[in-house]
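User:
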Amino acid sequence: MRQKKAKGRVYHYWARTTPWTRLPDPYSDPDGFMRAMARLQRMGALEDERHRTGTFGGLVADYRRSKHFRETLSNSTRESYDRYLTRLLVAYAAAPLREMTPEDIQRRVLDANEDTPGAADMMLTILRTLYAYARKRHRGLSDWTEGLEYFGNQTEREPWPDDMLQAALTSDNELFRRAVTLALYTGQRPGDVCAMTWGMVAGDMIRVRQQKTKTALEIPMHDNLKAMIDELPRSEEHLFLLSNRRGGPLTREVFLVWCQKFTRKLGMNRTPHGLRKNAAIELFEAGCTSAEVAAITGHKSLAMLEHYGKRRSQPKIARLGMGKWKAKTKGEREN
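Assistant: Predicted structure:
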């Protein structure tokens, strides 16, 4: 309720309607005032329920309160979802769920964001997640993402070219060089790399619990990684392997910016996540099986892992395979 003073009198208004609804004076007509308040409150409750259950804004509010959003998603994924949900609410907050169509999403989400295909693809993924959540709670909803296609432009997450990777591994920026080394030789996501502490190091192993999947891993250290870790400063002020001068952790946001700045100077745009693909490719090219690669990177889906490995070098794999064949033939002759 709001009050306004005009011409020496005080007027009372219900402020949840547009325009505000004037109320009877509570002093001269208390019964009328209470009846009007009760009626408006009932109307407001019905409107809230209609909004909560029947619009995109209400669906998003429900989803943000869900266990899936609050507990199943990792912190980084939840933050990313939150950011894109806010963008989608600008376009669809008051949209009735039953009136949302693929054609409208194509125009207002995909076409409107074609200059940033990565963002458009992420919003389409979130819209599909929301539909899967909504159809279990709203009978008869049509799939508002049916037939829509991803741009599929994921160049930022592509593996780093060999020359660019070597330049990063020998960079004069000490902390950047260490971050790239740790990300490459553990094959972990940027958030997990930045969260690694000295307590996770045990001999020649690094123990990791992935933030996204909660998978626990024990990763043997590559000689290059072991040499780098042996040189890291260690004190009571440096809890994290990648700590700044004040002892705080390197954040994944800063790591992202560093990688983008470094790679753009070399004519490309790459992110820390691409180093995870580099790790998978190196392991495949070394002759590892999918199961062996997954034991290091923590991938649950072998199909996704094979997707990562599509960029492995055919000549290297062929040379490795021929070497095994030659060894087999030599063994047979000796026997």
